[in-house]
Amino acid sequence: MHNLSRILFFSLTISLIFLCNCSPESSQDENTSKTALDSLTISSIDTFAVGSSIRAMTVVDDQTVWFAGSGGMFGYTENGGQTWTIDSIKMDTFVPHFRSIAVTDSAVHLLCIGSPALLYRSTNKGESWDVVYWEAHPSAFYDAMKFWDNQYGIAMGDPTDGCLSVIRTEDGGKSWTKVPCEGIPDATEGEAAFAASNSNIALAGNMAWMVSGGARARVYKSADRGQTWQVFDTPIKEGGQMTGIYTAAFLNEQEGIIFGGDWNDMPSNTNNKAITKDGGQTWQLIADGEEPGYRSQVRYIPGTGGKGLIACGIPGISYSLNGGENWENISDDSYYTIDIGSSKDVIWLAGGGKVAKLNLK
Question: Is 262 helix (H, G, I), strand (E, B) or coil?
Fold first, then answer.
């Protein structure tokens, strides 16, 4: 057991006032309920030092959080960050660098970048690991991994053989199969993905979306859990080596948001954030020409009817109270990834050498 020193990083008392939609609309999806919160107060951030650059993190619940990062390092807490178990994976002289993580009720999955692509699975909280997928394609580079439930999962990566790489599991991660390019639209030369935050994939219902950048900034959509795909253009900036979409989040099967920008021009705030209301077929820019600029991950805040959003990047953490139309900055500290459990009371972030717990009241 590795006890990390907890530092009170800074204290904020920002009251975020959410507008209440009092229309009689109802939804079967609790996350799309039109009953929004009246207010939200950010009280403090606790930070935990970790000797790894962390771009992959998943929140199981408000007490249980897993991360994986550079140097083969992974770790978890089951008591809200009071104590952490931290370890690393190495294979002889090969050291994997993780930017994808997924946790089910029975297993933890870590996927490394680069070639060979290795997907590790543990059923005993990391005490031992099995390699359940291996790919030696010279262009192999996987960027994100998600599970719909305890059986169905998906991971995506840069193009190999002319299309984005997609692998799927239907048995809880015990085995994985690569989707043939016949089911995936061709990638444009110079189009790829960014392993910035494990959020190139978003899931809702049986749907999946994955996002690209570089020469093109497009959204790929699957209605059959990743077996076949369509692709749609977006207004997000494209054409540069580091331009494009870095993150996607969906509230339900129709409403979603994409965020990104240009890593080489992070302050630029035009053509870097957009929303959809038709399941990703069309996208409309929001807050164009307004803060924030580049962000590597965006998430909907639970219980806000899609009004509350929070995003992180380099530099800063930003929030919106009105579905992304306007944003405010709450910190200039840099983080790569952000995740939220079922409650709005705790938001977790991770970045270079740290995990942070954003405490809300």
Answer: strand
Structure tokens at 350: 């991770």
Chain-centroid distance of CA 201 in Å reads 7
The answer to whether the CB of 344 falls within 8 A of the CB of 304 is yes
Angle at the Cα of 273 (from 339 to 219), degrees rounded to 5? 85
| 8 Å CB contact between 19 and 38 | no
- Give CA–CA dist 341/323, Å, rounded: 19
What is the Cα–Cα distance from 145 to 122, expressed in whole angstroms? 15
pLDDT tens digits for range 112-146: 999 999 999 999 999 999 999 999 999 999 999 99
Handedness of CA 343, 25, 276, 209 (dihedral sign): positive
List phi, psi (to 5°) of 175. Answer: -140, 150
Task: For residues 305 and 152, give the distance between their C-alpha atoms in angstroms, rounded to a whole number.
Answer: 27
Using the 8-state DSSP alphabet, how is residue 120 labeled?
A: E
Q: Which residues pair with 351 in a beta bridge?
A: 354
Structural domains of the chain, ranges and CATH numbers in brackets: 6-360 (2.130.10.10)
d(CA 344, CA 360): 7
pLDDT tens-digit readout, 180-196: 999 999 999 999 999 99
Give the H/E segment covering residue 98.
strand 98-103
Nearest CA among 16, 21, 36 for reference residue 304: 36
